[in-house]
Design a protein that fits this description.
Layout: H1 3-34, H2 39-67, H3 69-92, H4 98-110, H5 112-130, H6 134-163, H7 165-186, H8 191-199, H9 207-216, H10 218-231, H11 233-264, H12 268-290, H13 299-318, H14 323-337, H15 340-351, H16 357-369, H17 372-386, H18 388-403
Length: 433
């Protein structure tokens, strides 16, 4: 296979694997509801599904460096597929108790981040071998996250509506298996160049030397990155803001929206359409914003887009509106959400020293995602207590107040570009409004 073919294969694996994750997110809440579970049970399941993301983020890099990038990508999909397939097999044979469902959901998500990290490390070497500019390759890789929601959410809804939640999980397991097979067959030859580019020189390419460099300074590097994040006045504000908004977004997407879809939108199919509309609009928004971002200030568009990314998609269900209105609100919020990561990505590249970017990115991601498990759990408890629509209303108010914080000025002014602006526009993947 040619170098460009291997690059396309890696991007295809990323899309298929992320689509599998999205279908799983749509399907698992309806497995809980089909068993007679409550809103709190849905929230507990969302908690167990998202905790592994937080754990895998900061520590996944060390894991894939020891296992190997191609093997890590393939095995992460194999484990995800096997755990998903175990759920319907148990349910159709000896039974699927709630504790077993939670354990399988946890294991299924535990290796998602290491697998994606492995594919991300493989990308620069493959792009160089194929003669593709790195910025373009990274842009395609990041766009797969939005594309996976656009494709995976409607597919998941249709599978649940037509086959039922357990058969839908079995189909999703096959998709993970296909991703692992494609990795093993088509991306295998890309592993050594990627390692050589990132970790070794041609004069010191022994595994022992490479392992010593990786393990000897791991905790020291992690501590340096943590100190940088804590001491930088802008990043302290960013982590606090995104931690809260991601918590609220998780409450909306992992718990409240499935419950609202079950009550008002016709079930999983309606949920799939809403999530797919949001993902497609966000994909379009990120593409369009890329052409005008360098001509605009940052702070005011950032605040406006952040408010719109949450407001309409929260207010529509808070008012008890039906599917057409919820779809329209998801479209508006998705377009605004597409502009957020490019803005923050440019600021990060300007403020983080080059030799610290990898570890700081990982720590920023972990901090930003830390509230997500708690968001789904609290949303389930609140929905049982005051109702789904009322919980949406509370979250809409809190979300709006929090996202207006950059207008206060202070260290938020540091996000404006310096006089000598950078030309590159990287994408940060730690925010998923």
């Amino acid at each position: 296979m040619t170098a460009r073919g291997r690059l396309r294969a890696l991007l295809a694996v990323q899309v298929v694997s992320r689509v599998g994750n999205v279908v799983t997110t749509v399907t698992v809440p309806f497995v809980v509801l089909a068993r007679g579970g409550s809103a709190t049970d849905v929230g507990i399941t969302a908690f167990m599904a998202t905790v592994p993301i937080v754990l895998g983020g900061p520590f996944g890099g060390a894991l894939v460096e020891r296992i190997g990038f191609v093997r890590s990508s393939a095995w992460s999909d194999v484990i995800s597929g096997a755990t998903l397939l175990t759920m319907p097999v148990l349910a159709w044979t000896v039974g699927l108790p709630f504790w077993a469902l939670l354990a399988l959901v946890f294991v299924s998500g535990l290796f998602d981040m290491p697998g994606e990290s492995a594919r991300r490390v493989l990308l620069p070497g493959l792009a160089a071998a194929a003669g593709v500019p790195l910025e373009r390759a990274v842009g395609h890789f990041e766009a797969s996250a939005r594309l996976s929601v656009l494709v995976g959410a409607p597919v998941g809804g249709l599978l649940v509506a037509s086959l039922g939640p357990l058969p839908a999980l079995a189909c999703t397991a096959l998709a993970f298996g296909a991703a692992a097979l494609l990795t093993a067959v088509s991306v295998r030859q890309a592993d050594p160049p990627a390692i050589g580019t990132e970790a070794r020189s041609t004069s010191d390419a022994s595994p022992t030397a490479d392992q010593a460099v990786t393990s000897g300074g791991y905790w020291r590097d992690l501590a340096d990155g943590f100190r940088f994040c804590v001491r930088d006045p802008f990043f302290r504000l960013v982590i606090a803001l995104v931690l809260v908004t991601n918590l609220l977004d998780a409450a909306r997407s992992t718990t409240l929206l499935p419950l609202y879809a079950d009550e008002r939108l016709g079930g999983a199919q309606g949920l799939g359409f809403v999530s797919g509309t949001f993902g497609g609009a966000a994909f379009l928004g990120s593409l369009v914003f890329g052409y005008v971002a360098h001509r605009l200030p940052r702070r005011i568009p950032f605040v406006l887009c952040f408010v719109l990314a949450g407001g309409p998609s929260l207010v529509a269900p808070a008012l008890g509106l039906d599917l057409p209105w919820v779809l329209a609100a998801a479209g508006v919020s998705g377009l605004a959400a597409g502009a957020l990561n490019p803005i923050l990505g440019a600021v990060e590249l300007e403020r983080i020293p080059e030799h610290m970017r990898a570890r700081v990115f990982g720590l920023l991601g972990a901090g930003s995602w830390a509230g997500i498990p708690l968001g789904g759990l609290l949303a389930g408890v609140a929905a049982d207590g005051i109702g789904v629509s009322a919980t949406f209303g509370v979250i809409a108010c809190v979300y709006t107040v929090v996202t207006l914080a950059p207008l206060l000025g202070g260290s938020w002014r540091l996000m404006e570009r310096p006089r000598l602006a950078l030309r590159s526009e990287p994408v940060l993947n730690s925010i998923e409004p």
